[in-house]
Amino acid sequence: MRWLIPILVLIAIGFAAWKALPFLTLSDGQIPKIEKPSSSKAVASMKGKVVKIKDGDSVVLLKGEEDFQVVRLQHIDAPENGQAFAQEAWEHLSKLCRQKEVVVILSEEEDRYNRVIGELFLTDGTCVNREMVRAGLAWHFAKFSDRKDYARLQIEAQAQRKGLWAEQSPVPPHKWREQKEQLEATENNSASQPL
Predict the structure, then answer these.
(1) Is 115 noted as a catalytic residue in this protein?
(2) Which of 28, 98, 133, 171 lies 20 to 30 Å from 143 when distance is taken between CA atoms?
(3) For the chain, which domains are there?
(4) Which residue has the higher pLDDT, 192 or 67?
């Protein structure tokens, strides 16, 4: 009987995910407003083609003939350029979505670089953001996301030692950035000191 509750939870999660993705079945090419389950407020979305991969968690989307939009992938944090597994993350993201049509479900905020934030979905329903975590090439960005599905995907990738989790103690990108900034500040201070 203990097995019944987890199965019911999985069924409920699957049904909720299926209900949250109606845009994938539209045939007229229009992107509807998608209602949040717990609110009457509509979630914005946009459609376009991924024309450039900036790094492991941001892409450039072509929305029209010359309308480009940088999109930061929500809920994840991929290794920074110069960090271990940054190249692998870039390559995997490129393989997943470069030159492909996507729908972006937008967050209500922008990041500190004024990029829009959202979840990228391929036309077959694949969530690119989740696939990066599943492959072990991005962390669940728990500082800004309380999504349990991303946390679960990270735990699974860690258990299977996928991607960056093959390393003994991978450093999360936000900590790596802090360490880099501290090192640069130390170098700048020592360079300005008289000999």
Answers:
(1) yes
(2) 98
(3) 42-178 (2.40.50.90)
(4) 67
